[in-house]
Design goal:
By secondary structure, the protein is mainly alpha-helical. Helices cover 81% and strands 0% of the residues. It has helices at 2-19, 25-31, 37-68, 73-92, 103-110, 116-125, 128-140, 144-166, 168-209.
Length: 214
């Protein structure tokens, strides 16, 4: 039971770090600056719901995706580690990850009426890193409790993100650009550490399968 609880905590924290609600706050605040509170809430709610649905779908389909393409969990772990390291590197430099939205996509979103689904829900919130994370976690789960904890983690991350988006103008005003960059760099470091650990776990499992102690 203790291992299951530890897995649940790791699932939530790693998913929250990669999902990174702070990364969506500046774009959300900018694109909804002229909207009413009700309009902003609807945009935030639809965006978060979209991202949660994406996470749940890929958690459910994770085993099927791995089996269909003949991909081992270890290969996915190593790939996820590389992706996380790249995302964390961008965050460490206080740059928006290229695996999230580009400036051009944000500019186009400002001209569209419905930005909640794209680019807010996908790929700003549920980007490639988030999708890889839930598939990896689903692949690592060894019992129904651990698999269920991945679904719960996706719901909790969405629940945390909604108030963050609604408070975006206030938080951005309080933190300022410098404060936001500091927080982004700290989270970037954590993302890189998670990436390295995933790669180590994947490589270690492969090496042991060859009969080599690691």
């Amino acid at each position: 039971m203790q291992q299951d609880l530890a897995f649940a905590v790791v699932a939530f924290t790693s998913l929250l770090i990669v999902y990174n609600p702070l990364s969506a706050m500046p774009m959300f605040a900018s694109l909804t600056a002229e909207d009413s509170y009700r309009q902003r809430f609807r945009t935030a709610a639809v965006g978060v719901l979209t991202s949660v649905i994406v996470m749940v779908v890929f958690t459910f389909a994770g085993f099927g995706i791995l089996r269909f393409f003949g991909i081992t969990t270890e290969a996915f772990q190593i790939t996820a580690g590389v992706i996380f390291f790249g995302i964390g590197s961008d965050m460490l430099q206080a740059k928006r990850s290229r695996l999230k939205t580009t400036q051009r996509e944000q500019d186009e979103a400002a001209e569209r009426e419905n930005l909640a689904v794209i680019p807010l829900g996908l790929p700003t919130l549920a980007g490639p890193g988030t999708i890889v994370t839930v598939i990896t976690l689903a692949g690592q789960s060894v019992n129904p409790f651990q698999l269920g904890s991945v679904y719960v983690a996706a719901l909790l991350v969405g629940a945390v993100t909604l108030p963050c988006l609604m408070l975006a103008p206030t938080l951005l005003g309080a933190l300022g650009r410098t404060g936001l960059n500091v927080v982004t760099r700290i989270m970037g470091l954590l993302v890189m550490v998670v990436g390295v650990q995933l790669a180590i776990n994947g490589v270690g499992t492969v090496v042991r399968s060859w009969g080599i102690d690691a």
